[in-house]
Every structure is written in C-alpha cells, then in structure tokens.
Design a protein that fits this description.
Layout lengths: L4 E6 L5 H10 L3 E4 L1 H9 L5 E2 H5 L14 H8 L5 H9 L7 E5 L3 H5 L6 H6 L4 H11 L5 E3 L5 H11 L4 H30 L12 E6 L11 E5 L12 E4 L5 H14 L6 E6 L2 E7 L3 H11 L7 E5 L5 H7 L4 E6 L4 H7 L6 E4 L12 E6 L2 E6 L11 E2 L7 H14 L7 E5 L2 E6 L5 H12 L7 E4 L7 H9 L3 E4 L6 H10 L3 E4 L8
Parallel strand pairs: 1-2, 1-4, 2-3, 4-5, 11-12, 12-13, 19-20, 20-21
Antiparallel strand pairs: 6-7, 8-13, 9-10, 9-11, 14-15, 16-21, 17-18, 17-19
Helix pairs in contact: 8-10, 13-14, 16-17
Length: 516
C-alpha cells in the first residue's frame, strides 16, 4: 500500500463510517477533528485527533482546527522532491496521503426561513477549503475526496490497486477545485445581495449544478444538458417544475416551456398561452380555462401542433379532453385533476409539468444572462409595464375604454413575441400574431394573413415604433380600430397621420419590448 495516512474532517457525515472502516481495514491511520472524531470513535474506528499532531487544541469555537504547518506541510510536500522530504524529517512531520473533506453547510443555512447573519457567517468554512485546495494542488501525491458519492469508487481502487491512477487523481482534483469555487461563489453572491444594491457588479461569478443530461441539444448532433442556478431560486419557474408523466424534456422543450411560463405570469385571470419555437402563437384570458384554450387555439390553428401549452389554473377533465385532440409536446399547469390525469395517460409520451403556485401572483425580480461566444450578456428581467396614466393619446380619435383594456392585454402579449413583433387582440384574446421578422411590415402581414377576417375590429400592439406608415396602412386594411406602440420614430408624424386618415385611435406607451 502506497497510501498510509488519511485526514477526515466533514460536515456531512452520511456514508462516512463505512468508508472509514474500509480505510482502517487497508491499514490507514486516520486523523480527524471535532464532530467527525466523535462519530468515527462511536463506530469503533481508531482515531488520532488532529490536536495531538499540531500540539494545539481546537480554538475560537472551532474556527481554528487544521490551520497548522504540521497538517499543511504533510499535505503539500512533494514526495518526489528531496528538499521537501528533508524538511518533513527535520520538523518530524508525517505525510498525509488521503484527505476527506466536505464543507460547512452554507448553502443549506441560507435557505432557512429565519436565518440570522451570525449563523450565515459562522457557516463560512475557512479551514476546509484550505485543506481541499492544498490536497488538490498536490494531487499526484494526495487523494482528495470531497463528495460522499466518491467513497465507493475510491475505496474500490485502493482495494484492487493499492492506489488511484493518475487520471483518477486528476478527476478528483478538478472536482475539488470546482467544489471550492462554487462554495465561494455562493457566499459572495449571497453577501452581495444582502449588503449592496448592485445589479450589474464589476465582477460576476455564476455557479450552476447539473439538473439533467439531455438526449441531445437543440439538434440531434449536439450534446446538451440542463443546469440550475445555485442556490436554487424559490420563484415558480421551469427549473422547479415537477414532471408527472411523459418522456424526458428535451433542450427545446425547456426553452419553450420557460417562455410559456414567463408569459403566463403577466396574467391573473384564467389564461392559456401556446408556444411554438420559443414564441407565442396564441394567448387568451377568459372566465374559465376551456374558453381560454379555445380562444388561444383559434388564433392560429395549425402552429400549436407539437407545441407547448401553459395554464395558470388546474386542468380538469373537460380541458384535458379538448387538449387530447391535438399533438402537443408539453402541458404546464399548477395542477391536474385526477380525471384529467386519467385522460392524459393514453398519451404516454406527453409531458405534464406541475408548477404549484402558478395560479397565484408571482414576484419577479433579478437579472438574466445570455451567452455569446466568449462571454455573457446580462440585464434586468423585463417585468415592468408602463401604467396607463403614462400613455399618450396622439390621434384625433380617442380610444374607448374597451380599446384601452385591450391595449393593456395586447402589450402583455407582444412583449413575449420575438421581435419584430405585432399582435392583434379582441378584448382579452389574441386574433393574430406576427413575430421574428426583420421588418415590422412583414410581421404585420403575417399576423393579418393568419388572423384573416378575425382581425376586423381588433386592437393592435407593436413591440417597437413604426419606422414608416406602411404597417399602419396594412393593419387598417385588415380592419384594426386601435393601435398601441412605443412611439419615438423620426416618422412619428407620418404614422400618426396614417392613423388619422384611417380613423384609428393610437396611443404611445413610451416603452419598447424588443425580444431577441
């Protein structure tokens, strides 16, 4: 056996006893500290306390245990370097060849409802990360174990080979450095949020934990995985969804589901949002879910095939039977009745996602990141809607109260459609959606083409200003009666004139909603 001495100091002691017993059987001398010593001693494992090696007791309520040259020299000494070995002999220091450390539970501590800052600070580990980094730096000579999931494979290699291969040690070292990096990131992000009002700080660290591997990424030839932020957020979101049935979610399913969930958070009434390829193809609020579904589906009856449907009320049998008439990839709701689940069981591949709380007001805050090659873009989440009292009526014809209510609904819809985008609504249902175009007039043409005769008498919303009057003329020809847009074009007067000529009421909201 090449490995002779192990230092064990862990916060999470699950599975530790069996691992330590296995080490003892292999002839390891085990050093330990504090609570770890107590647990292992009770299990009949012979332990050498670290304090007997350092000559110092644990100090400052346990803040200082292993921070000592007799410990760190034993870890950091290179076995192939004569000067290091001579130094150890000179000071009578023995090598430590295996280190088992997991850190104070900072992440679990900050999740507690009434946690105090004193508890938070005391759960910042100092000695542990120092030990881990030292062992990982000297990975060729020291086996570093930071996760209970590693116990069995490490013990197996020691039993079969007497040591680990260099590739096994390298992998453990990488995981160790990742572990301490994530730990420090969680701490710094938490304290920044508590102690400052910084939204976009100069230095940003992002830490994620894999939730699942995907069968593939956006396309079958690409590898993909789904990661969740650490610490986990409490907000209702795709990351916290519970899958009740169906195949594993694909990369595109997750993107589309996220878009559906974020869109439906805009509405408090019973609402249905249908998403296809990351953009809505139908949105409706109604007195009940069945009507909401029928009205949303009527916006565009062919795009929902293979799409994502999201509701903000429990799906019952009646709605389930209607949904069963079309091929859908995912259905999201705060709940499903027992009868609805029975209906859906016939479609084994259909994914049902339960998001409790989606039927209640959701507090949205924070920032979002998007990756580009070599970096990230970051911005505040777009959750603000300009209130009606900030709007400016710019045409001779004034909008009716009904048109103003339709404008409020339309703005909530258009901000979730890929730019350039326009939507046409009647009351609280979409009748035409056009988006993802390089010209606003093209988006308008698509919406009027899909909406056809349903657009007559509708209200139109645009995510950005009209650069020319052409889209207004096209909307007027389709029968639109009112328009809301941000305004701010150098051709605003021309656009307003077009609305006046067609006897359309127009409002400037002053707020743009590009969605790239």
């Amino acid at each position: 056996m090449k490995v002779k001495r192990a230092l064990i100091s862990v916060s999470d002691k699950e599975g530790l006893t069996d691992f330590a017993k296995g080490l003892s059987k292999l002839g390891f001398q085990i050093l330990s500290t504090g609570g770890t010593t107590s647990v292992l001693t009770k299990s009949g494992i012979k332990i050498v306390e670290v304090s007997s090696i350092t000559g110092f007791p644990e100090m400052l309520d346990g803040r200082v245990k292993t921070l000592h040259p007799r410990i760190h020299a034993g870890i950091l000494a290179r076995r192939d370097k004569r000067s290091h070995i001579d130094a150890l002999k000179k000071y009578d220091i023995k090598t430590i060849d295996l280190l088992v450390v997991n850190l104070y539970p900072f992440e679990e501590t900050i999740k507690k409802a009434k946690v105090t800052m004193e508890d938070v600070i005391e759960n910042i580990d100092i000695g542990g990360p120092t030990l881990v980094r030292a062992a990982a730096k000297n990975y060729k000579d020291v086996i570093i174990v930071t996760d209970k999931k590693q116990y069995s494979s490490v013990l197996k290699s020691l039993i079969e080979k007497g040591d680990l291969t260099i590739s096994e040690k390298e992998k453990l070292a990488i995981e160790a450095f990742s572990y301490t990096a994530q730990y420090d990131t969680i701490i710094s992000n938490y304290l920044r949020n508590k102690w400052t009002n910084e939204i976009l700080p100069e230095k940003v660290s992002i830490t994620m934990r894999k939730k699942q591997d995907m069968r593939y990424g956006e396309n079958p030839h690409l590898k993909g995985a789904f990661y969740k932020s650490i610490p986990e957020i409490n907000e209702i979101c795709i990351t916290n969804a519970v899958k009740l049935q169906g195949k594993e979610l694909s990369y595109n399913n997750i993107l589309d589901s996220d878009g559906a969930i974020e869109c439906i958070k805009e509405f408090s009434e019973p609402t249905c949002v249908i998403i296809k390829h990351a953009t809505p193809c139908g949105i409706s609020s109604a007195k009940n879910l069945l009507k909401a579904w029928k009205d949303a589906y009527a916006t565009d009856t062919y795009s929902p095939f293979g799409g994502i449907v999201c509701f903000n009320r429990t799906v019952d049998k009646e709605v389930a039977l209607e949904l069963s008439n079309i091929f859908l990839e995912v259905i999201i709701a705060p709940g499903f009745s027992k009868e609805a689940l029975i209906v859906f069981r016939k479609k084994k591949n259909l994914r049902l996602l339960k998001l409790e709380g989606l039927d209640k007001p959701v507090k949205r805050k924070g920032i979002v990141f998007r990756s580009v090659v070599g970096g990230f873009l970051s911005q505040e989440r777009d959750v603000i809607l300009t209130p009606r009292n900030k709007w400016k009526i710019v045409t001779k014809k004034k909008p009716t109260e009904e048109e103003l209510r339709s404008m409020e609904f339309a703005v909530k819809c258009v901000k979730h459609v890929k730019s350039n985008s326009v939507v046409f609504v009647k009351n609280t249902r979409t009748v035409g959606i056009g988006g993802g175009q390089t010209a606003r007039v093209d988006a308008t043409w698509i919406a009027t083409h899909k909406g056809k005769e349903n657009i007559k008498g509708s209200t139109m919303a645009s995510d950005a200003f009209f650069p020319f009057r052409d889209a207004v003329d096209m909307a007027a020809e389709a029968g639109v009666k009112a328009i809301i847009q941000p305004g701010g074009s150098i051709h605003d007067e021309e656009v307003i004139q077009a609305a006046d000529e067609h006897k359309i009421s127009m409002v400037f909201s002053g707020q743009r909603y590009f969605r790239h």
